[in-house]
Amino acid sequence: xxxxxxxxxxxxxxxxxxxxxxxxxxxxxxxxxxxxxxxxxxxxxxxxxxxxxxxxxxxxxxxxxxxxxxxxxxxxxxxxxxxxxxxxxxxxxxxxxxxxxxxxxxxxxxxxxxxxxxxxxxxxxxxxxxxxxxxxxxxxxxxxxxxxxxxxxxxxxxxxxxxxxxxxxxx
Length: 171
Hints:
Number of helices: 6
Order of helices and strands: HHHHHH
Strand content: under 5%
Low-confidence stretches: none
Number of strands: 0
């Protein structure tokens, strides 16, 4: 059985714990001794080559660059604040619906405030429903609750806001 290339390289680098076994094998195997001699010659020739300067920096594409500036732009801060306000409003309006779905949780303190918010919200929606729009063709639309309509509207606003944020970041 002959020595592998890894064993010969480790022997030359003095990074093997099998040094004694490799030396015993090299003394009895002319083929492995010849391979070791060839490998030593290759490394000697490589060491004798002159150092060359690179014409371009090969590490530049791999170096880390800061992705965000130290201070966030004003539009980003304003957009995040508005999104948080809309999210909190949506959560506040949804609390009574959640309380009705989960009667085992006692949320009486929040439910009173939430019911007032919901009452104001539904009165606002009722006011909006009195506006006359031009007749539209009949489409088979599934009946949705005001909560689903509200969540859909908030989601659309959220997505549009994030789209604007991303578009501004790419410029």
